[in-house]
Specification:
By secondary structure, the protein is an alpha/beta fold. It folds into 2 domains: about 160 residues, Multidrug-efflux Transporter Regulator, Chain: A, Domain 2 (Orthogonal Bundle); about 120 residues, 3-Layer(aba) Sandwich (Rossmann fold). Helices cover about 55% and strands about 10% of the residues. The strands form 2 sheets. The chain has a 5-stranded parallel sheet, sandwiched between helices. Helix 10 links the parallel strand 3 and strand 4. The longest helix is centred in the middle third of the chain and has 22 residues. The radius of gyration is 22 Å and the shape is elongated.
Length: about 290
Amino acid sequence: MSSYSIRDLEQLSGIKAHTIRIWEQRYNIIQPKRTDTNIRTYDDQDLKLILNISLLKDHGYKISEISKLSLEEISNEVLVISDQKLSYPDQIHALTISMIDLDEERFEKIISTNFLRFGFENTMTNIIYPFLSRIGTLWMTGSIGPAQEHFMTNLIRQKIIVAIDSQVIKYRPDSKKFMLFLPEGELHEIGLLFASYIIRSHNHRVVYLGQTLPFTELMFAYDVHKPDFIFSTITSVPANDEVQLYVDRLCKQFPDSKILLTGYQVIGQDIELQSNATIINKTSDLVELLA
């Protein structure tokens, strides 16, 4: 069972920490544990309760009314709402609960419903990516365990692979070739897979080299394929003090290709780019480039 701080609850639910404290005092709606130094801590059940309360509030329930409901009644009300069409934030809350419970059946229902309603690309952009960003912060602070993080990312990874396999691509004479890879030691593959889907959906060719690729192997594959573009996601590797050197090496080694970079280690950082490199800040940047 995971342990969460009040700030974790705030980030996951969107409810301010100050508001949660007021609910504790005024309505006794949640009872946190306390450390030896009197710091509030919350468990998985507390987080689920806050997420459910947030969902009810967003649908017009008053906190004074919610406080009178039992846990079972709160869950029943949430189920009634869940059968209706939920907004993007509501779907993110629902995914968070499925992550906490390691509930694959609930995940499948949420994702399948949204694929039918919004389509694969919109679901990824407006639900999956904000959800991954939210839990990424908790992962780095140790509030979410490896089992929960791996459970969700692997399910999402499977969905993207299935979507790629179902694509029908019609290459054109002007179709470009993109080589996609992750640096050696980098394992965060979801962004790279989704980029592969987007590129293929615009009828361009993809050479997918996957995770943790040594630079010498990238050079070998480049000599074979001579791609127009090289795309990589840098999330955790190389480290901060090595990213600039790695970007410089890419640009210098492959001057005849356009280098496209995205990920936590390059977006919003003070990376100096050579003329053949571009940072992709969001999915729409890639779509615009492809168009």
